[in-house]
Specification:
Distance between the termini: 24 Å
Mean pLDDT: 93
Helix content: over 70%
Radius of gyration: 18 Å
Number of domains: 1
Order of helices and strands: HH
Largest sheet: none
């Protein structure tokens, strides 16, 4: 049985993104909470989410386009 390298690459990319987001939210916002308090941590969380919103929108649009192309192709 041959290994499915595409599945492995997709799984690795998902894990890397999840780890980066976990570090961003836990370590980044945790340090803000530690040094500046809970009010600043909430504002930091809002700022992180606002900064990631365009990235999420682009990813959603690309996923929709990929779905449309796969659905339209005869294969």
């Amino acid at each position: 049985m041959t290994p499915d390298l595409r599945r492995y690459a997709r799984q690795t990319n998902v894990r890397l993104v999840a780890g980066a987001l976990l570090l961003l939210f836990l370590v980044g916002d945790g340090l803000i909470y530690l040094f500046y308090g809970p009010g600043a941590a909430v504002i930091g969380l809002v700022c992180i989410l606002a900064g990631l919103t365009p990235v999420g929108l682009v990813l959603i649009i690309l996923a929709i386009l990929d779905w449309v192309v796969r659905r339209a192709s005869p294969n």
